[in-house]
Amino acid sequence: MHRRDLDLHHLISPSVRDLIELANTHDFDRVTEQVRDLHGCTSPVNLHGWTITTDPTTKEVVRSYRSEDEPSGRLLTTCGNRRASRCPACSRVYAADTYHLIKAGLSGGKDVAETVRDHPRAFVTLTAPSFGPVHNRKADHAGKLRPCRCGAQHTEDDPALGTPLNPATYDYTGAVLWNAHAGQLWARFTTYLRRALAEHLGMTQKALNAALRVSFAKVAEYQKRGLVHFHAVIRFDGPDGHTSPPPAWATFDALSAAVGLAVKRARLTIASDAIGERVIAWGGRFKVDPITALGDGKLTDARVAEYTENKVAGYVAKYATKNAEGAGTVDRTLMCRPCAGRGYVRGPDGFHDRCADCDGTGQAEPIKALPVQHHVRQMIRTAWDLGHLPELAHLKLWKWAHMLGFRGHFSTKSRAYSTTLGALRDVRRAWRLAQAEAARARAGLPTADENTTLVTASSWTYLSSGYRPGEELLAAQVRRDIAHSEQIKSEGEPWL
Length: 496
Prior knowledge:
Structural class: alpha+beta
Distance between the termini: 41 Å
Number of helices: 10
Shape: globular
Low-confidence stretches: 1-5, 299-303
Strand content: 15-25%
Helix content: 25-40%
Protein name: Replication initiator protein RepSA
Oligomer: single chain
């Protein structure tokens, strides 16, 4: 049956109508294969272009591909978004890569020496200071919950947790500015950590740097009160990095003492005519826990948990895919893109004209209409207003208002800590290429010699993002199949 003979207009669902259109293309199997290869990505990138791989010696074309040959005329590739709120499928890949990156820095592998397991390592948590009392759940030394200052004992899912007891006196300006400078404060902390370590050991910093290298990896996490705090893996290495053992005097106790000194001394000072002078510093509550090679990660007493390599790597990977949604905010920028949040565009005559898209507000959607709590809305509004102060314009807080002012990277590492995410992606890409070559060989098609250097030329153009309506139905089925497989893995095969 030809597609022109189909009467699809009686179908109510555009998705079903489009799926039938796709089913009547010349190669529906390829349509389903493209969608299946995305592994449930929610917003794939649509590309148009070509790639040709040739043997420079024989001038023979080894591989070639054109998006025009696809049934839909375009190539679909994963979006690669790390945020679980945007794309659970791609965020799982990012989390897995992060897990292996952190784990390699703790136990070796991925070109990291396995002897790092014997190096002093700590799991460090650094928090923000208080900007006013908030509703919370605190426990005493025996692990028994104590009442909040409001007199109630909040449940774990109580929406009041993290919100100010007295919003009128809460320092929203200080909270937003702390988030905005948290990344810089971390950089300052790593500098003071080395200085504090040299002071604690009674040696010069030059002598310390010649004998010891400090490596780290960190991830940011939002607390319920809307402020970020950092979890970091800090490791001592010898002068040659992970391949050399640290000196005997570089102990966990020395690391713990240095962290305490660096937390007290690392600070930033900012000044503004509108808000005066502000000191950005860490909160008084921080933790330094040893990382063990073995163990079950369970509580060793009423207060202390054992941090194993697997537990720490899993913890960091989990938060590497989170955004600010843990604080109850939105996962999209509020900046009007046509005017870049300024509320005006430059007209043909050079004058500032009111932006028609946002009606001069600079906001893609009104802050007052956001489906968030009052506390979060006030932090967003504060970030938006501070961003338009001339002396703070360089922070671009209106762009990061939905992040409650935080502008830094969620996960970072020092160069010598372990492998990189790029290297892990290269390994995965090489594996896929090897699988493709093996498939070509099984099909009797020519394959490249292992000793031959191939030359690849390509040209690609971005078209759009997302699926066609019919493809979205296929993608939904892929997600259900993946979820079912994961359920079977976690629960075991059901009895028949």
